[in-house]
Structure to design on (1084 residues):
């Protein structure tokens, strides 16, 4: 059953035919002309007009009521007329009907009928108050019409209840109060008052807001299975509160015969049966209306019915989601599961999601997801299944638009290209289109060919500002759709016209031809302090046209604007008119106040002077205030014009409180902050005490001391200096000339590490404190001795004699023994050209005076490397090395030394050499105390047969003649060169050398003084550990911050160690690059 409706059969409305008698009244009387319109379909509109269809004028005195009657608060003589006509319009019927004209005659009165107001609507018979009911959401109309002389004035007020949010609207010259969309808040008492000079009349309207029923909860039907329970809820509100009635198939339910439970808001049934299927209705009603809600309850018991077709084919691309549908209707509800291919196990991984409607969603599909799927539905009545086939196609469609976000100058051209990749099987369904700012661009060329689309390209010639925007390439196939964007930015110039208001508070560009500027720069120039120099004042966003500037006092400004975008800066605008800002007192004080002093009994106070733009006015000076800190005393003050002040005869290194304030002719700056400064420093007058030395190892000691008292520093303590010098060697007892070394330790500390000492030596050490003024007195010297250490490597290693299975080695004493020598360790091993090595053999020489040794049992024609290192009780030092090749079987390899060669000799003959034999020739110094050579080369003498060939040629006549001709030709050429040279002038050899430096000599010089690298010190593969395994490291476990600053730059300013502990290195020598195969000693 549906809701109730009202059916109206309209008839043509007509005014009754009647004879209306004329109304005769006197001036000042009140009159009512009644309309009494006929009934018709609303809405109804009433008009008062004359016979010429002219509206009767209305005002506070003459007005029409809501019912259509015409009220005169008091009549005047010009109100007399015989054609007052009432017209009733029915828009829905398209009909207007007219009442018979009425006549009003107004005669003059013999006296003035002044009287207080009297309410005509509501009439006095209704009393002083009345009740009005309005429907919530409707329109409230309250009407008051009064008569009286003079004409009364109407006013409205709400007496009780909350005031409406908006001021109520009045109509008909204040005689009608109107409130649209009435709410509960509009409920209350409203009062209208009619007043004139003779008195007033009032009436109260008690407004009640009611509403028809509306639903809060409607009953919901559905499909239920046999044996389940049913609960239907129904709830409605309204004013008055609505009554609820339940109906079954349109008929009221009799609670006595109904097998379920029924109440005003709920109906329930248990153990539903097929016959319980019906339409259950809930009806809510009050005096303002009735509403009806229906719930269809179907009790079914059927097997699952799969609505999706069997064998559906689905397809998607890799990476997208696939949706396989399985729409089911069943009662009772069916259990749904999906399987793949021949498996009977349901799909249950995270990528598979089963929706409530039976659809299977496969997320982020892969190629292996292709196959056959089955949807199974089962309930207590039966079971059904369908299959679905899924095909996963290649890769998803990809798009790239190039160039990405281009910037193009106005009037230039741009070509956008949309590069795409898609599955070849989707070629026939692949489509490309272009959009600009979301709107599709037509495929055909536009604007006379200026914008051309050709599938994957978009060409725009003569770019304009309107072309700027986001261009989107859209690619779609039958399986996917992707987009790619590129934002086109059009760059152009910007032109400004500058205007400054009278108060100089802002700058405004009036015209601009491009809104693409990134920002605008406001610049200023002032001619009082820096005339002609334009400076940046502020920056604004590119599209701003006004800005508020902060200006400084006592300046003569002019301004200009420069716009900046990706292309560059625009030309500046024309400067504005000049404006001089009035002076003012300083608004800041000097900064960076500091104290400097060069003498102990003076204090120089300095500060950064104010910039010209910070002076704010003429007559700038600085008021300097000072007093000793911690002493109760008044501030000392002095006015200065420069930015420094010197005080003399101050105590040494005493803290002072200092203030500097800016002052000009218009007043003082803000109250300055107090700065703490110290008077002049003097050198410390005390030495550290309790100096002691802790021996760490043979080259490193740790020094401790007690710092000096703070009042003896007489300044800011910078740190401590530790000085030491060697007095004698413990090895030979020789005294040494004192050569002082020192390290600086920054900060207030009481210890430091002294590295790089000579082992087995006696030292003296002192400590002093220092500040910015200088060093204080040194402490008493402390004597300490360093223990023995490992010796340095022997000075040289020479191979005196090679034989096929033996060799004689000779070596020198170590450069520094660093203790009492206990002997030497001699080591040797086989090597070859690929740097592969044999086992290392050791020979211990226990006699410390032994400086040579013969090794036997060597292999013939084999290359060896020899090592010799000196040892003390602390261990062995670094080895000196040499390489050599033993002789072959039956060969002799004894080296020979010639007589002395004079330095002026150009050559030296070597006799008694064997033909066809390889020799190593080395030029060395006469004394030859190390392995360094001046020259070294490998030569091979000629064989006897080869020499015989040359002997035969030298005796031939033709050969002798050829040699003579060559000699004669050479002499002739030398003569010609000599003559030409004498004609060219004479130059000193020195000038020629300066003009034409010998590149070969320069190359040699670069090699000699270039970066030195001792290649022989590089270890052979696998030999480093065995060779140096017995050398013990002498490292300290102390923190590197314990080390100070040295005279040789071994430490940085904070005392951290950056060098090594080792002493000075010997100067390296130049090596030749001869063959490594030798029968004479080679340099190690």
């Amino acid at each position: 059953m549906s809701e109730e409706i009202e059916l109206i059969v309209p008839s043509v409305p007509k005014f009754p035919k009647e004879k209306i008698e004329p109304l005769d009244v006197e001036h000042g009387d009140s009159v009512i002309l009644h309309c009494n319109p006929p009934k018709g379909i609303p809405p109804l509109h009433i008009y008062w007009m004359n016979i010429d269809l002219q509206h009767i004028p209305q005002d506070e005195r003459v007005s029409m009521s809501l019912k259509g009657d015409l009220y005169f608060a008091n009549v005047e003589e010009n109100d007399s007329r015989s054609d007052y006509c009432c017209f009733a319009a029915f828009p829905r019927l398209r009909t207007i009907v007219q009442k018979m004209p009425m006549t009003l005659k107004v005669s003059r009165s013999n006296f003035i009928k002044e009287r207080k107001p009297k309410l005509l609507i509501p009439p006095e018979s209704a009393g002083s108050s009345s009740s009005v009911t309005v429907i919530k959401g409707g329109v409230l109309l309250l009407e008051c019409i009064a008569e009286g002389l003079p004409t009364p004035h109407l006013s409205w007020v709400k007496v009780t209840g909350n005031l409406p949010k908006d001021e109520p609207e009045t109509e008909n010259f204040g005689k009608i109060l109107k409130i649209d969309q009435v709410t509960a808040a509009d409920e209350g008492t409203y009062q209208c008052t009619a007043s004139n000079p003779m008195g007033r009349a009032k009436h109260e309207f008690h407004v009640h807001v009611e509403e028809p029923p509306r639903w809060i909860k409607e009953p919901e039907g559905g499909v239920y299975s046999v044996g389940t329970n049913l609960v239907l809820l129904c709830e409605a509100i309204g004013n008055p509160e609505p009554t609820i009635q339940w109906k079954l198939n349109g008929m009221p339910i009799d609670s006595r015969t109904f097998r379920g439970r029924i109440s005003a808001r709920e109906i329930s049934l248990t153990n539903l049966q097929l016959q319980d299927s019906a339409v259950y209705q809930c009806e809510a009603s009050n005096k303002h209306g009735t509403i009806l809600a229906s719930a269809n309850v179907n009790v079914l018991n059927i097997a699952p019915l799969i609505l999706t077709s069997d064998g559906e084919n689905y397809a998607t691309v890799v990476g997208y989601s696939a949706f396989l549908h399985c729409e089911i209707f069943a009662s009772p509800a069916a259990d749904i599961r999906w399987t793949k291919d021949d498996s009977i196990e349901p799909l249950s991984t995270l990528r598979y999601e089963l929706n409530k409607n039976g659809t299977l969603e496969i997320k982020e599909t892969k190629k292996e997801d292709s196959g056959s799927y089955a949807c199974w539905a089962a309930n207590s009545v039966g079971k059904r299944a369908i299959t679905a086939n899924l095909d996963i196609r290649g890769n998803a469609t990809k798009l790239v638009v190039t160039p990405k976000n281009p910037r193009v100058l106005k009037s230039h051209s741009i070509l956008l290209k949309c590069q795409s990749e898609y599955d070849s099987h989707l070629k026939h369904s692949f489509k490309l289109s272009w959009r600009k700012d979301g709107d599709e661009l037509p495929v055909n060329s536009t604007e006379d060919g200026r914008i051309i689309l050709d599938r994957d390209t978009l060409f725009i010639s003569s770019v304009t500002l309107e072309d700027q925007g986001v261009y989107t390439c859209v690619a779609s196939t039958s399986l996917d759709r992707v987009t790619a964007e590129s934002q086109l930015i059009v760059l152009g110039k910007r032109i400004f016209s500058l205007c400054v208001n009278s108060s100089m508070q802002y700058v405004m560009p009036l015209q601009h031809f491009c809104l693409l500027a990134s920002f605008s720069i406001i610049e200023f120039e002032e001619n009082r302090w820096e005339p002609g120099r334009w400076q940046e004042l502020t920056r604004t966003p590119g599209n701003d046209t006004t800005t508020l500037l902060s200006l400084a006092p006592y300046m003569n400004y002019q301004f200009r604007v420069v716009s900046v975008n990706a292309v560059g800066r625009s030309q500046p605008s024309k400067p504005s008119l000049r404006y001089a800002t009035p002076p003012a007192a300083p608004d800041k004080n000097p900064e960076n106040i500091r104290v400097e002093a060069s003498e102990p009994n003076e204090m120089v106070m300095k500060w950064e002077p104010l910039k010209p733009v910070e002076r704010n006015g003429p007559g700038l000076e600085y008021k300097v205030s000072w007093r000793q800190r911690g002493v109760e005393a008044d501030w000392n003050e002095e006015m200065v014009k420069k930015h420094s002040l010197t005080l003399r005869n101050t105590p040494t290194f005493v803290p002072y409180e200092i203030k500097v304030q800016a002052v000009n002719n218009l007043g003082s700056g803000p109250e300055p902050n107090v700065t703490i400064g110290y008077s002049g420093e003097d050198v410390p007058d005390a030495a550290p005490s309790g100096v002691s030395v802790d021996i760490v190892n043979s080259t490193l000691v740790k020094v401790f001391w007690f710092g000096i008292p703070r009042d003896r520093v007489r300044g800011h303590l910078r740190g401590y200096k530790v000085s030491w010098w060697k007095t004698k060697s413990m090895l030979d007892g020789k005294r040494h000339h004192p050569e002082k070394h020192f390290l600086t330790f920054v900060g207030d500390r009481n210890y430091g590490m002294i590295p790089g000492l000579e082992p087995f030596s006696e030292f003296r050490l002192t400590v002093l404190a220092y500040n910015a003024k200088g060093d204080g007195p040194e402490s008493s010297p402390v004597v300490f001795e360093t223990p023995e250490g490992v010796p340095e490597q022997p000075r040289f290693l020479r191979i005196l004699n090679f034989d096929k299975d033996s060799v004689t080695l000779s070596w020198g004493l170590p450069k520094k023994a660093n203790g009492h020598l206990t002997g030497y360790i001699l080591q040797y091993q086989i090597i070859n050209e690929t740097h592969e090595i044999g086992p290392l053999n050791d020979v211990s020489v226990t006699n410390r005076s032994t400086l040579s040794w013969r090794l036997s049992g060597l292999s013939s024609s084999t290359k060896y490397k020899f090592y010799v290192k000196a040892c003390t009780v602390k261990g062995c030092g670094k080895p000196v090395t040499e390489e050599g090749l033993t002789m072959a079987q039956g060969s002799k390899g004894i080296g020979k030394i010639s007589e002395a060669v004079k330095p002026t000799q150009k050559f030296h003959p070597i006799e008694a050499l064997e033909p066809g034999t390889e020799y190593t020739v080395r030029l060395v110094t006469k004394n030859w105390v190390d392995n360094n050579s001046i020259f070294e080369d490998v030569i091979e003498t000629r064989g006897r047969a080869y020499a015989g060939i040359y002997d035969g040629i030298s005796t031939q006549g033709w050969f002798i003649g050829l040699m003579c001709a060559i000699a004669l030709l050479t002499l002739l050429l030398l003569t010609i060169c000599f003559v030409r040279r004498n004609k060219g002038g004479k130059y000193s050899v020195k000038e020629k050398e300066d003009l034409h430096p010998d590149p070969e000599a320069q190359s040699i010089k670069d090699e000699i003084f270039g970066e030195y690298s001792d290649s022989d010190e590089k270890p052979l593969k696998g030999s480093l550990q065995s060779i140096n395994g017995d050398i013990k490291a002498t490292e300290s476990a102390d923190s590197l911050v314990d080390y100070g600053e040295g005279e040789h730059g071994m430490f940085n300013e904070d005392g951290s160690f950056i060098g090594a502990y080792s002493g000075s290195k010997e100067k390296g020598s130049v090596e030749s690059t001869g063959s490594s195969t030798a029968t004479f000693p080679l340099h190690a």
Summary: The two ends are 120 Å apart (CA to CA). The mean pLDDT is 81. The chain is about 5% helix and 40% strand.
